[in-house]
Design goal:
The protein has 259 residues and is an alpha/beta fold. It has eleven helices and eight strands. The chain is globular, with a radius of gyration of 17 Å.
Length: 259
């Protein structure tokens, strides 16, 4: 897989063939771009797909210091510039969705359509994220994995899809602890509630009806505040693109195909 070097950051990415339009996928906290494997076969027939590992995740650099959502958003713009991609569709889940919100506010000219999945203008509390950061820095990723997996998937899915759950847990446990903690800081410090109305591009909000990380009220708030936004509820917890892969893929495909 190729890399792009921009300053101190080496971004690991994968880009499919040269068809248009381009669809960018942005991963959640504690994953890498393989989290989007369930969407690749179907959406790859219709879109040129760019996946990348967010700074501090997967094979991308774990740069020093705590990160910000602005920094992670600028990483996306730098990647697009390096690959000579002008405007793209953007789909991000959780942390990836927070990056999408930032892009929708600050770089709308680079986006055709925006899909915000299992995300919110603010997630959790500062104390919660500070405790999580301290835990992984002291005890490693396995110390938080079991609790995170319970939030990622419903109990029914964990019981019937043990192979997919094990795959997700391996991905989580292999995340670099310092990169994970640095991205926790970005989430800790982000609050975009007051700026949502600035997003003027077509937007779809996808949320899980059983997502304990993102209350449905926060998902509805995105829809209410972003002009003209649509929303889709899936019978899933936090990683809805895995738990309800077909329904998720269908919702994204229909939205991006609208005239």
């Amino acid at each position: 897989m190729p890399f792009v070097d921009i300053g101190e950051l080496k971004t690991h990415y994968a880009l499919t063939d040269d068809r248009e339009p381009v669809l960018v996928f942005s991963n959640s906290l504690g994953t890498d771009f393989s989290m989007w494997d369930p969407q690749m076969e179907e959406l790859g027939r219709r879109f040129r797909i760019l996946r990348y590992d967010t700074r501090g995740h997967g094979q991308s650099s774990v740069t020093a210091g705590e990160y910000t959502i602005e920094q992670l958003g600028c990483d996306v713009l730098g990647l697009l510039d390096s690959l000579l991609l002008d405007r793209v569709h953007f789909c991000g889940l959780s942390m990836g969705g927070m990056i999408g919100i930032w892009l929708g506010i600050h770089a709308p000219s680079r986006l055709h359509r925006l899909v915000l999945c299992n995300t919110a203008a603010r997630i959790g509390t500062r104390d919660m994220w500070k405790a999580r950061m301290a835990k992984v820095r002291t005890d490693g990723m396995k110390s938080v994995a079991a609790a995170v997996i319970e939030r990622w998937f419903t109990s029914a899915f964990r019981a019937t899809s043990s192979d997919r759950v094990a795959w997700a847990q391996r991905m989580l446990e292999s995340s670099p602890p310092e990169g994970y903690a640095a991205c926790c800081a970005a989430i800790r410090d982000m609050d975009q509630h007051q700026a949502l109305a600035q997003i003027k591009i077509p937007t779809l909000v996808i949320y899980g009806g059983s997502d304990s990380v993102i209350p449905t009220s926060e998902a509805h708030f995105l829809t209410e505040q972003i002009p003209g936004a649509a929303e889709v509820e899936l019978a899933a917890a936090h990683l809805s693109n895995v738990e309800q892969a077909d329904a998720f893929t269908g919702a994204v495909s229909r939205f991006l195909s609208m005239e």
